[in-house]
Amino acid sequence: MRALLAGAMLVASAACAACAGPAQQDIDDPDSPVARYDWDPRDGGMAALLEGELRLEGGCLYVGEAVSAFPRSLATWDSRAGYLSYGGATYAVGDAISAGGGFVDATTATGVTIPAGCVLNEWDEVFLVQDEDLEPYAG
Length: 139
Description:
This protein is mainly β. The protein is 14% helix and 37% strand.
C-alpha cells in the first residue's frame, strides 16, 4: 500500500511540475516580445511621459502605439501567462500604464534590442522607459 501511495505521489508530482513550466522568461530570450536595454536609475532619465495600454501584437509588446524598451534589470516576461513584471509589480496585456522616459532614434541607439515583430513609428523611434516603477493610467 505504501509503495502504491508513494508511486502515485511521485507521478502526481512529476505531472504538476510538467504543467507548470518556467513562469518567467528572460527578456533577452530570442522569443521575448519585450524591447529592452540597459539602464541604471542612478544615471537619471528623460522627462517625457508615455501613457497607454500594454498591447501584444505580432510578437512585440507596445505601450499604446509605441514600441517601448524596458530596462533589463527591472523587467521580466512571463510568456505562458502574458505578464510583464516590472519594479516588483505585475502587469497584464490590456492594463493601462504610464511611464517616464523618452523617445530615441532606434537606428542609432546603442544597446537597445528590439524584437523582429516590432513596428516602429514613422521616425524609427523607441520609447526608453526610465522609471523604477509603472503607474496605473485611468485613460
